[in-house]
Amino acid sequence: MANNDLLVQSALQSVQSNVTSQSKPVTQSVQTETVTELSVQSQALQKEAEKQNGQQQQLADDLRDKVAQLNDYMQNMNRNLQFSVDDTSGDTVIKVIDSET
C-alpha cells in the first residue's frame, strides 16, 4: 500500500509540475479603441450640454430684454403695469400698481 501511495504522490507532483510549467501568466489587454470611443462620446456629450446651456442662457437674456421693452412701453402709455420674471421659479409676474397709493 505504501508503494501505491508513493506512486500516486509522485504522479501528482509530476502533473502539478507540468501544469505550472505550461501555464501562462494571465494578462489583461485594454482595448484602446473602446476607451477612445468612450472618450469621444464623452466629449460630444459635454459639448452638447454646453451648447444647450448657452442656448438657455440666450433665451433667458432675450426674455429679460423683452420684459424691459414691455415695461418701457407701458410706462410711455401711462399704464401702471410692471412686468418681471421671477428668478427662482422662472414665472412671469405682472404687477398692477395704483398710482394714487
- Succession of helices and strands: HHEE
Content-based structural category: mainly alpha
Strand order of the largest sheet: 1-2
Mean of pLDDT: 76
Rg for CA atoms? 39 Å
Count of DSSP strands: 2
Q: What percent strand?
A: 5-15%
Q: Which shape, going by the Cα principal axes?
A: rod-shaped
Describe the structure.
Helices cover 65% and strands 10% of the residues. It has helices at residues 2-22, 32-76; strands at residues 81-85, 92-96. Strand 1 and strand 2 form a beta hairpin. The chain has two helices and two strands. With 101 residues, the protein is mainly alpha-helical.
Question: What key attributes describe this structure?
Answer:
101 residues; mainly alpha; two-stranded antiparallel ribbon; 2 helices; 65% helix; 10% strand; rod-shaped
